[in-house]
Amino acid sequence: MSWWSRAALGVCAVIAFVRPAAADPRAVIELFTSQGCSSCPPADKLLGDLARDPSVIALSLPIDYWDYLGWKDTLADSRFTARQRAYSRARGDREVYTPQAVVNGSLHVIGSDRDAIEGAIEETARGGAVMSVPVSLSIEGQELTVSVAAADEHAARKHGEVWVCSIARVVPIQVARGENGGRELTYYNVVRGVMKLGDWNGSSASWSVPLEKIVREGVDGAVVYVQDGSRDRPGLMLGAAHSDLPLVSRASATVRAPER
Q1: Where are the domains of the chain?
Q2: Where does the signal peptide begin and end (predicted)?
Q3: pTM over 0.90
Q4: Is residue 233 within 8 Å of 163, Cβ to Cβ?
Q5: CB atoms within 10 A of CB 39
Q6: Residue 220 near residue 250 (C-beta atoms within 8 A)
Q7: What is the DSSP secondary-structure string of 169-200?
Q8: 129-182, pLDDT tens digit by residue?
Q9: Could you tell me if 146 and 139 are in contact, meaning their C-beta atoms sit under 8 angstroms apart?
Q10: Can you say whether residue 9 is alpha, beta or left, with left for phi > 0 and alpha for psi between -120 and 50 degrees?
């Protein structure tokens, strides 16, 4: 049984909750990281700092290709490894490493280098298409509603895929073995599930998703992004938004509204 199905079984009640997403962000930063990588903890900490910036959507995507080094990453997902490699193919290089930050679906830099990340944000913004499409989220009752605005008539890109990610904002992990053995590491905005909502063709569009398809234990946020290209050849981030989600209680497996 998939975790989406387990989440659906665990959701017993949903409290009506409406909270609009924050203002349009300037960047989506994806950090490819691993619990088995001794160079990653500074990048993980920096991602936590960036996640507190309301103008940035920062995501942690733990990969699995270092699992053979003595410690199997407890958050890793082979889909994140595939995404990192898809970015490399789309760029035309062989740059797949940890910690690697991909900024706005375009440039990659070392994930622990704050100046390089800020520089990449500025560079990707110069083209005009990056993060130019307004996206909004709202939650009411048992549904998440995603709205994507129409493209400007002079926009260079008028097509993209719309994806929703469920995230866990803070995840402490005790690493027993490997390069980080004996350390407790904290991960921020960890992606715990991804689902394609549909395709955006330049016209305004909206989608409604049952919360039971997104919520699982530990998940307390959602990120939606519109991205040029495809899953196999991802391109520029055209727009994105973030919202808190109701929480699944560990004790009762019911959904409760987040504290304000």
Answers
A1: 3-245
A2: 1-23
A3: no
A4: no
A5: 16
A6: no
A7: EEEEEEE-SSTTTTEEEEEEEEEEEEEEEEEE
A8: 999 999 999 988 899 999 999 998 777 778 999 999 999 999 999 999 999 999
A9: no
A10: alpha
